[in-house]
Amino acid sequence: MQEKLSRRNFLKLVGGAAAAGTAVAIPVAAKGVGQQFVPYVKPPEEALPGDATWYASTCRMCPAGCGIMVRTIDGRAKKIEGNPAYPLNQGKLCARGQAGVQSLYNPDRLKNAVKQNGRGSRSFEPVYWDAALDEVLAKLDSVDPSKIVFYAGTMPDNLYYLVSEWLTAIGAPAPVIYDLHAALEGRAVSLQAAEEMFGAAQMPVYDIANADVVLSFGANFTETWQSPVAYNKAYGDFRGQAGGRGFFIQCEPRLSATAAVADEWVPIRPGVDGLVALALGRIIIEERLGTAGTLGQIYAGMYRGVDVPTIANAAGLEIEQLHRLARILAEADRPVVIPGGYTAGQTNGYGSYQAIQALNLVLSRLGRRGGVYLSQPAPAETLLTMPAPNSFADVQALIERMNAGQVEMLFVYGANPVFELPQAAGFKEALAKVPFVVSFSSFVDETAVQSDLILPNNTYLENWGYQVASPGADRPAVACQQPVVRPLYDTRSTASVILDLAHAMGGAAAEALPWGSEMLFMEDVASILFGSSLNPYTAQTAGEFWAAFRQHGGWWSDRPLQQEPEPVGLGQRPIIVTAPAFDGSARDYPLTLYPYPSVVMSDGRGANLPWLQETPDPMTTVAWNTWVEINPATAHRLHLKNNDVVKIVSPQGEIEATVVEYPGIRPDVIAIPVGWGHEDYGRYAENRGSNPIDLLAPITDPESGALAWGATRVRIERTNRTHALARLESLHGEGRESLS
Amino acid sequence: MSDSVSRIKKSDGIIIPEDVRDQLLLTTLSDDELNQKMLGPMQKTGPMFWTAVVVLAAIFAWGLYAWGYQIYWGFGVSGINRPVYWGMYITTFVFWVGISHAGTMISAVLRIFKADWRRPITRGAEAMTAFALMMAGLFPLIHVGRVWKVYWMIPYPNNRHLWPNFQSPLMWDMIAITTYLVGSSLYLYLALLPDLGMARDNSTGWRYKLYRILALGWRGTEPGWHKLETALGIFAIVIIPVFLSVHSIVSWDFAVTSQPGWHSTIYPLLFIIGAIFSGLSALGSILVVVRWGMKLDFFLRKEHLDNVGKLVMVAGLFWLYIWFASLIVNWYGNMPVIRELMHDEFSGEMAPFFYTMMIANVVPIILLMFRRVRRSPILLLILTLSVNVGMYVERFLLVSGSLLRNYLPFNWGQFRPTWVSLSIVAMTFAGFILFYMLFTRLIPYVPVWEVKQGRLRYGTRLVGRVQVPTITQVD
Amino acid sequence: MTTRLSDNPTTRLSDHRWGMAIDLDKCTGCQACVVSCHAENNVPIVGEEEAAYGRTAHWLRIERYWEGEYPNVKAKFMPVMCQQCTEAPCEAVCPVYATYHSDEGLNGQIYNRCIGTRFCGSACPYKQRMYNWFDPVFPEPLEQQLNPDVTVRSRGIMEKCTFCVQRIRRVKEDAKAEGREVTDGEIQPACAQSCPTNAIVFGDLNDPESRVSQMARSSRAFRLLENLGTEPGVVYLKGGETRV
Predict the structure, then answer these.
(1) Where are the domains of chain A?
(2) Does A726 touch chain B (CB under 8 A)?
């Protein structure tokens, strides 16, 4: 039965539609802020509803800068995977990288620029971006440029490029780069040492994958250290080698997750890493162990005055054990020795670092398969890359300047110094003396709370950028970061804010940063790379290259190309490793504190992501809170048991944490994960656990200026309270695998 | 009965065993007087009665609120977790199913074995079965995460051809318990008919109207009696396999899994005998309370309590035997995970519960061996309540205690009941007592017709010049 | 063991028997798989108190075992997820067939059929079935991350690892559309895809040439609680030892 559409019905239909249209349109019109009336049914061109679009980009959850592929559906980011083509992480990604989407869709993100009604008040007023930038410009105009400081965490290279050019142009000092993650992984020390020993400030890359013996001094490379995904991948290959599964030794006072997968864990005393390395070198050369013992005789001068029994005694090891380790190293075909972050976090860190690296020289492992390489620098000198982070001593100098009123304006990007620096360093107090503080944080973190203006950065999934992998892969690589979704809120990338500021200031600043937008800047970056003979993809024009650069998630050599370190600064000169010094007397503070970066929280920047909060720590299986790891014998002596809340007291302060009896730690050491203890930083992070950094003494290694974060002594006091930690593991199970 | 026969006394020419006389209420009271002795107390409700009703109703209502709270917020409020997926609800479910077993045991098994002393207490036992099953029947509803979808367990035709899984012991459970509930309710109701008729004939007002409807026109005609006796005879036999199957199936809810502490071939037996043990104990407690509350000393005599006590004691000994058989096999088997479970019970977390169970169950078994204890209502009450505490704890240890341990020590558990689960459990106890109390005031608690029938069986007859006791086969 | 899997009539119904091999020698306990699983499968988070009470919803957990005492102490990691048993104890006990056996060897879990008796959770010897104790919470705009291919589970139902069945289906359908067979390694569950050490390998156990089959034939291969006869689809390769 066919019904003809009568004129009357037709009018009814049209009328109905019109009425419906008005009903929808009126409220939109009433808003009247010039919004476009675009129906939802019209999708973005490349997006099919329900069909996934993948964007290649770069992870910014830690400085490693892995290549990622982001799955987006209907304009929303759903899942982050590793970029299989990117040579650094080869399609793999870590827990923190996976959780990146939760920083994009975090409920506690700042939605627009805000002004704080009095620092620390936590009462924020939204401001228009133009007004906010005007205010910043007015301040920039009125202050002496030398009193402007840009404080940053490890930042993507593009931002470093723009910021450093801008600061130079306006006559301000270079940015101060310091964050806790970099400090805990010993990034600055690695680069400083590489410059002194190998003549190039590039991160060393340890070819674990092809080594047959790996000796690591506190390098937690399967957790957070430097480039954990790449090193995890390498570890998997190390175990899967055709010639055998290799032998891995970890020297560290605590059985970290990395030490847990080692074949042998050597629980040395804190701060003796370098001494042990010296002893090993001395034994190899003195006893002419293996080929290294013969060939390495030319390096005998480095070990002049090294007394093995004294070192064995200081390290708490048997002489036989040192001999055994030396023999294993010397008789291996492809051994590699790795100095870790904990090594660098001692008062003798720099010397130790050199002593450990010297073993690679003695063993002839520089630039050899399964040995040590250097990261490839940027393929073009015009492509600026972030240099070594500043030392803690530099930060202390900054704090002094702030206290002396020599800082009038402070920008804070990508770092949270109020949380990350030892309280005793006095950053927060010094900050109060800075008249104008601008934070670029996407979240209200502890430092943002102490600032006047927050100009929230986009999250990395909404931003442009590039990054030269450091530590690098087996070939030169530049990762491309591109927005995978439109910015969720009225936030702006800090790079574009810097560009805007430079343009508005005019003059030298505008000339130094001629790019109209950060995308144009990125196109320029791509054009620098275009034309390299190492291209992995064919592109005829710069435009094609720019498209391919984004599609592939970066640029890299089509064949392996590794940089061999030249031992310019090593050889005959004796290596001096001083005895480690600790803050606090051994009588009042009998235990040494080992604050370590949590595999999920990193240095605390992961604390606002619920997935990471709920992910159990691999060793203790605890989630959501701070714990303190105590050897069962020590716990027994102090009448402590699991879930007891204790007070940890250092000469600098005290915190509370819950006891975890931990069989894998020296009885004279306690370990506390870093990352919890936020006062601000969103609902998932706030008022949860405590921050062991608060306990640290602001002491440094005099040679490198690095914070000696492993050199504070503490004592434990009971509180007679308990707290049920969220442990995945049953305490009744007593860690057993099976029942028998 | 051999025990009674040996103590036959000769006096005044009437030769009836004394026990039998008491058990069968062989008095000189007329039928009418008997009727009044039953109907009278039913209409007496003092302030204590009503206070109890109000308190119990309040607990029941609070439990309903807790249940609603649980449905609204999710099962998380109930205190179970992974791996202790089954907690108070399943424990209490097993407990109530267990209680229900005594009614059938008393009325069907004793009927078949012609244990005449059962007559005055059958109704109380059957009512207990019905109400306990009702409470047990709530738990499958309480216990599921999405109660609004629970009808998916019913095999109803639907256009998606979705059927329930008849492999699942929960399906067997549902079928067995429904069958048992229907069967035992019918059994209870059938046996009620003559008394409802009697009550109708002896009451006025709303009670008359109620009994007239309930009695279904019972007139006590010869064909009526004949059909009733036939039906009861059939029911008594048919209900016994159902009764055995129900608790076997409940035990298979656990025993068919590989969960350590659950997986055992002896569980059907252990559960059945445990059910009879706890059910008879509950009956003992109830009889003492009802006898005191309604002043039914005439019908419920110490001889009945004595016999119930004996049954409890015998069931207890059986239970103890099977429980011990289960224990010793596990002990000697010495399988690691079972060893952990036993360690947990003997000297670990569960030790307080374990020793509570041991003491609460074993002490009554021993004490009930003494006649004087059995004949003391207050002692019987205390001891039978103790058995029920013990048996509740036994079920808790079995259901939740076992789940605390498994083959993977990493995933061992912990368990803390919450106010919600405790309220819901309390609700079923309150509900059971409340319904039972109301029942005693509405329905003749003692089956008067059965008592009368019993009196008919025993008599004396002149044979020549000698008066001899006679026993007549009536059923 | 391996041969038994392919001999089993329930697995022969289809060409595939999806399985997983996990090389414990390579697992570093880095938790990448755990977070990846949360992201892919809309696994809710529960918060500290609930987590402390054994109510985390991780479909995949890394168990850590201690061996020995200080200083000769060792720790081992073992990722445990639903073992996708061939003779699954969970399947028989579900009264409504919410959990069932697929012809490709998977233990399917039909969320909207589940009524929440938790019988499967009690029957599972691996304790690897997770219950939704409350409705999941995704404060705005976190819900924008949710994977549209995977149902968000309401309160009162069971959930567990599915071997990322949505990914299996997508690859199979893509292969079918292109008129070809699924190739080995083409299907990657979220955990295997992210695993930085390549410890987790997924594939078809019915294909003797697949990597997972090859690993399953390793002399290091074992299955979790093998003696219970559940015939898991997850094969572990025990950690090795190097002598020097």
Answers:
(1) 184-374, 591-733
(2) no
* Residues A651/A657/A663/A667 CA torsion (nearest 10 deg): 20
First to last CA, chain C: 33
CATH code assigned to B2-471: 1.20.1630.10
Write down the pLDDT at residue A28. Answer: 36
Domain count, chain C: 1
Considering the domain boundaries, does residue C232 fall inside one? Answer: yes
Q: Are A92 and C188 in contact (CB under 8 A)?
A: no
CB pair distance less than 8 Å for A739 and B413: no
**Residue C244 within a domain:** no
Place of tokens 């070192």: A311
Residue C242 covered by a domain: no
Interface confidence (ipTM) of the complex:
0.93
Instruction: Pick from A266, A615, A687 the residue to mutate for testing the C interface (most C CBs within 10 Å).
Output: A615
Q: Which two tokens stand for residue C39?
A: 């992201």
Question: Would you say residue C144 lies in a domain?
Answer: yes
Amino acid at A483: P
Q: How far B81 CA sits from the closest chain C CA (Å)?
A: 6
Q: How confident is the model at residue B474 (pLDDT cuts 50, 70, 90)?
A: low
Q: What is the CATH number of the domain that holds C87?
A: 3.30.70.20
Q: How far is residue B97 from each of residues B204, B397, B426, measured CA to CA in Å? A: 37, 17, 16
Q: CA-based angle B456:B460:B462, to the nearest 5?
A: 135
B82–chain C nearest CA distance, Å = 5
Asked if C108 is an interface residue toward chain B (Cβ–Cβ < 8 A), one would say: no
Write down the pTM of the prediction: 0.90
Full residue range of the structural domain in which residue C200 is found = 2-237
Helices of type H across A530-663: 542-552, 610-614, 632-637
Amino acid at B381: L
| pLDDT for the residue numbered B15 | 56
Of B84, B143, B152, the CB nearest to C96: B152
Band of the pLDDT at C13, cuts 50, 70, 90?
low
Confidence at A313, pLDDT banded by 50, 70, 90: very high
Which of A353-367, A368-382, B5-19, B296-310 is the least confident region?
Answer: B5-19
Question: What is the CATH architecture of A184-374?
Answer: 3-Layer(aba) Sandwich (3.40)
Secondary-structure class of domain A591-733 per CATH: mainly beta
Contacts of A290-293 spanning 24+ positions with Cβ under 8 A: A290/A327, A290/A330, A290/A331, A290/A332, A291/A330, A291/A364, A292/A329, A292/A330, A292/A362, A292/A363, A292/A364, A293/A330
* pLDDT tens string C104-140: 989 999 999 999 999 999 999 999 999 999 999 999 8
Query: Which of C54, C95, C133 has its CB closest to that of B165?
Result: C95
